[in-house]
Task: inverse folding
């Protein structure tokens, strides 16, 4: 039963299903114009093809590690100790390498923000 609250009509829904049918069956873009296709991932970007940014990796700078923790934890996770941060990272489904790096930090230390956490990890050579 149609209640009138749909954004699109039944006919437009069927039209859109027909447009996507080729893409769903083939597994690759089916458009003639390349500018319609989504941009591919950057293969030369080490942060993408090399896996997650982890303290101790050769390409992991202070800024890239800080960005990764800020993206995962946010402001509401601080101030906290290592145990609380590990729990927060696990809730956000963070990569295991990041969780292990934080788990190895001393349990008695408290971190007021992402910068302090990153400096403790990258500055100590972990």
Result:
């Amino acid at each position: 039963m149609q209640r009138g609250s749909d954004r699109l009509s039944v006919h437009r829904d069927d039209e859109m299903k027909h447009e996507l049918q080729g893409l769903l069956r083939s597994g690759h873009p089916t458009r003639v114009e390349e500018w319609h296709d989504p941009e591919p991932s950057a293969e030369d970007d080490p942060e993408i093809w090399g896996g997650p940014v982890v303290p101790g990796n050769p390409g992991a700078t202070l800024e890239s590690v800080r960005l990764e923790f800020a993206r995962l934890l946010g402001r509401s996770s601080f101030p906290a100790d290592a145990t609380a941060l590990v729990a927060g990272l696990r809730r956000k489904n963070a990569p295991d390498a990041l969780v292990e790096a934080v788990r190895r930090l001393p349990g008695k230390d408290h971190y007021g923000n992402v910068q302090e956490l990153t400096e403790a990890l990258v500055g100590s050579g972990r």
Notes: The radius of gyration is 22 Å. The chain has a mean pLDDT of 79. Strands lie at 80-81, 110-111.
